[in-house]
Amino acid sequence: MMNIYYDENMPYVADFFGGMGQLFPFAGREVDAEQISNADVLLVRSITQVNQQLLARNPRIQFVGTATIGVDHIDQPYLASKNIAFSSAPGCNAISVAEYVISALVICGEKYQRDISELSVGIVGAGNTGTRVSEKLAALGIEYKLCDPLLERSGDERQFHSLEDVLACDVISLHVPLTREGEHATYHLLDANKLSRLKPEQWLFTACRGEVIDNNALLSMKQQGHGLTLVLDVWEGEPNVLQPLIEYTDIATAHIAGYSLEGKARGTEMLYQALCQHLEIDPTITLDKVLPAAEVSEFELTSDADSIMRNKLIKMVYDVRRDDAIFRSQLNEIGFDNIRKTYPVRREFSSLSIKAGEYNASQQLMDLGFKLK
Ligand SMILES: NC(=O)c1ccc[n+]([C@@H]2O[C@H](COP(=O)([O-])OP(=O)(O)OC[C@H]3O[C@@H](n4cnc5c(N)ncnc54)[C@H](O)[C@@H]3O)[C@@H](O)[C@H]2O)c1
Ligand SMILES: O=C(O)[C@H](O)[C@H](O)COP(=O)(O)O
């Protein structure tokens, strides 16, 4: 029987992996080489550094999986050198990240009384999350520009723009991985110099990795009175946040943009499928058998769905102000990791079916991800 060690914050592990071996949960930030020395399979989240040091005492490990999109916590060359199979969960929580961005856009639009359909959005990084954001922006009729030199070079046929052009949009949304080497390294992509070129009326959103923005440079710019609107889900040096920066943000959250229940559960499901493939067995469990119905799963229109109704529906499923309030009130009480650990259930737009009857539900709602009944 295999020993499967998994991060305690990974949902539905018993449902997916229960039949494949003995299950042992661990705390992602505290786990050490001794604790996992007899693991055959190791399933982690982004807070566990998987490297030679962690695996040093384990002679039998054959599979490492991370239920995340980001892989900057994994020493992949080391795993390859030891012939240890590896899988991440590309795209698992991309819809969740996109819905975070859309909710934040609606909230900032209401706060500053801006018609969001008149804004331009610059998306830096046009992979899974950036693409999902662009699809939802297109549904809202919002103009967007993509910057992704790597995809552009690889022959992706979408229209791409320079970083400079994209950073000049009304709203900037960052969706790059954290990389520290190479021509397109993203560590401090927004450094003091690039930040200083932003205009006070721009909005800057980030839900990728904290280190992509130089947080100290951002803080000193805000302390000097720069008006930039800030939506920060990720922070340099998590779980230690540069606390003075929080008061300058419009929305601040604890790295939960990808934390819809569907997003987290998809991560577990993708690792289950990858392990099945590694073991050459057929997967038998699917997400639809595991996910519960949403608390509110149906909404009946009693008038045509206009933009006011659309915004109400977006906020009904996910209002990012809830997570902002939790962050501001709980950070010093329970800490960054515990906010994430105790994250309340959040569902994706697709969990809500709109019953339109004689009214016009509009294609826009469907394109945003809601279901039409
Ligand atoms: N906050 C959260 O909860 C959350 C959730 C999911 C992902 N993430 C983070 O977001 C990152 C992006 O996720 P994804 O699913 O879109 O990843 P992805 O790999 O699908 O896409 C990232 C894209 O960024 C591009 N890129 C790399 N360097 C670039 C640069 N210098 N300039 C412009 N583009 C560049 C790549 O070519 C790629 O297309 C992940 O690596 C992860 O770190 C955070
Ligand atoms: O990379 C990702 O997929 C996201 O950042 C994800 O939300 C990380 O979540 P964690 O593993 O830290 O719980």
What is shown here, in short?
The active site is at residues 209, 238, 255. With 373 residues, this protein is of the alpha/beta class.
The largest beta-sheet arranges its strands as 7-6-8-9-10-11
Question: Describe the biggest sheet?
Answer: 6 strands, parallel
Query: What are the bound molecules?
Result: nicotinamide-adenine-dinucleotide, 4-phospho-D-erythronate
CATH topology term of the largest domain: Rossmann fold
Overall tally of domains:
3
Superfamily (CATH H level) name of the largest domain: NAD(P)-binding Rossmann-like Domain
Structural class: alpha/beta
Please give the share of residues in helix.
25-40%
How far from one another are the termini? Answer: 45 Å
Architecture per CATH nomenclature, i.e. the level-2 architecture of the largest domain: 3-Layer(aba) Sandwich
H/E series, N to C?
A: EHEEHEHEHEHEHHEHEHEEHHEHHHEHE
The coarse overall form would be globular
Count every helix, treating DSSP H or I runs of 4 or more residues as helices: 15
- Count of distinct strands: 14
Round the Cα radius of gyration to an integer and report it.
21 Å
CATH class of the largest domain: Alpha Beta
On the 0-100 scale, what is the average pLDDT? 97
Subunit structure: Homodimer.
GO molecular function: 4-phosphoerythronate dehydrogenase activity; NAD binding; protein dimerization activity
Family: Belongs to the D-isomer specific 2-hydroxyacid dehydrogenase family. PdxB subfamily.
Function: Catalyzes the oxidation of erythronate-4-phosphate to 3-hydroxy-2-oxo-4-phosphonooxybutanoate.
